[in-house]
Each structure stands twice: as structure tokens, then as C-alpha cells.
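=== RUN LOG ===
request id: a7f3
mode: sequence -> structure
chains: 1
length: 47
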Amino acid sequence: MAKDIDPVCGMKVSDTSVSSTYNGKTYYFCCDHCKQTFDQNPIKYTR
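=== RESULT ===
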């Protein structure tokens, strides 16, 4: 069962091994590429 939604691509994420923390909140990603995209501009994906 999906735990979270990848904020970059909108995909449901069940494996939470790829994550990043921004402003005290942890975000989970489907792959390293989405994490890197988020890390470059987190404000774009947290509005």
C-alpha cells in the first residue's frame, strides 16, 4: 500500500528509502532523480 505521494511526479510511493527533509517535514520519492529535482528547488514542490 502506498504511504506517500512523490511531490515531483505525483507517483504513489510505497518504498520510502528515498527521502529528503525540508522545513522539518520529510518528503518521499519514487527515485533518486525526483529527489535531486526536489532538492534543487524545494519551494516549487512544497507550495
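=== NOTES ===
The radius of gyration is 10 Å.
The chain has a mean pLDDT of 92.
=== END ===
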